[in-house]
Amino acid sequence: MSHGPLMLDLDGKTLTPEERELLLHPAVGGVILFSRNYESPEQARRLVDDIHGLRRPTLLVAVDQEGGRVQRFRDGFTRLPPAAWLGQLHDGHPDMARKAARELGWLMAAELRCVGVDFSLAPVLDLGRGISRVIGDRAFHAAPLVVSELAHAWQTGAREAGMASVAKHFPGHGGVGEDSHLALPVDRRRLEDLLADDLLPFERMIRLGLEAIMPAHVIYEQADSRPAGFSHYWLQRILRQRLGFQGVVFSDDLGMAAASEAGDYGSRARAALQAGCDMILVCNDRPGAIAVLEELADYADPVAQMRLVRMHGRAGMTREQLHLDARWQSAIHLLAEYDESPAMSLDL
């Protein structure tokens, strides 16, 4: 059985009989976990093992573990600082910031691989202009080159722990104030400005072997009338052709308010896949996920399936091995500085 194009969520901390049946559907390819699915590292390991044991190749398991306010697994995991902390550190100590980003990327990935999670939906490459409330301190910095440096260091660390990275939100969510979870943002800037600034971190990360990208539910009206995640222009002409991206494209959640512009769930799924997404996410709406499964029952994309295979996590350590590892102990020591002064003049 190959990877289907749908990633869906679960209700609780164990699989229900209904969920086991859903996850065996050929259109399913992955599971995204949230805080409601997490109690402890031991429980998470059992849940992920249960998911992985259902079929071959195993379903992909993902989580949002950026750090700061977007960290789904907390108790028993190291508290990670927001990306903006690294950007602030870079302003005064760029070498130290790059090293810290690499170690935090490794730490995030190593801890998740201990419980079997394949990848985190991170890092954020949006520019921290102070415009977008939903991005806020999730952004490394306002300067594209600084974002590129820190994101590359983060990606390097994650790779060293056996994890691929998913950069978001292409081509950049930092220029709009609206939250795409609640509304459909429209970015009215010139295409030339987007290409020169917001796309630069994505372009540089692609050149450095970025494994996956998540597009934004944002309309960039000077380029296309459709949100980027449903746009052939953005996903094919710009991302695949101009930037030469060969990795996986994950949609953002099709349950977000901004995605409703594409119609009902079946229509949203088809539109996202036809535009160029390899895997689509439907979260917090089980009827919506079932509607997508019915719509995509016979869907197959061999090229997308080949890309998705690369997202499986590579061998990791046990928690006991990790906690004895000198690199883990060093990373924890580094984070003690954040615990002592988490704001660092960021007004967070």
* Domain unit count: 1
Report the helical percentage: 40-55%
Shape: globular
Kindly provide the radius of gyration, computed on alpha-carbon positions and rounded to a whole number of angstroms: 19 Å
Distance between the termini: 46 Å
Secondary-structure element series: EHEHEEEHHEHEEHEEHEHEHHHH
CATH level-1 class:
Alpha Beta
For the report, how would you describe the main beta sheet? 8 strands, parallel
Q: How many H/I helices?
A: 12
CATH superfamily descriptor: Glycoside hydrolase, family 3, N-terminal domain
Q: Any guess at the CATH architecture? A: Alpha-Beta Barrel
* Share of residues in strands: 5-15%
Mean pLDDT: 93
Provide the CATH topology.
TIM Barrel
Structure in words:
This protein has 348 residues and is of the alpha/beta class. The chain has a single domain, classed as TIM Barrel. Helix content is 42%, strand content 12%. It is built from twelve helices and twelve strands. It has helices at residues 17-23, 41-52, 83-92, 94-114, 144-160, 191-207, 232-242, 265-275, 286-295, 302-309, 319-324, 326-340, and strands at residues 6-8, 28-33, 60-63, 65-67, 70-71, 119-120, 166-170, 186-187, 212-215, 219-220, 248-253, 279-282. The strands form three sheets. Strands 6-3-2-1-12-11-9-7 form an eight-stranded parallel β-sheet. It has a two-stranded antiparallel sheet with strand order 4-5. A two-stranded parallel ribbon has the order 8-10. Helix 3 runs antiparallel to helix 4 and helix 4 (94-114) packs across helix 12 (326-340). The chain is globular. 53% of the residues are buried.
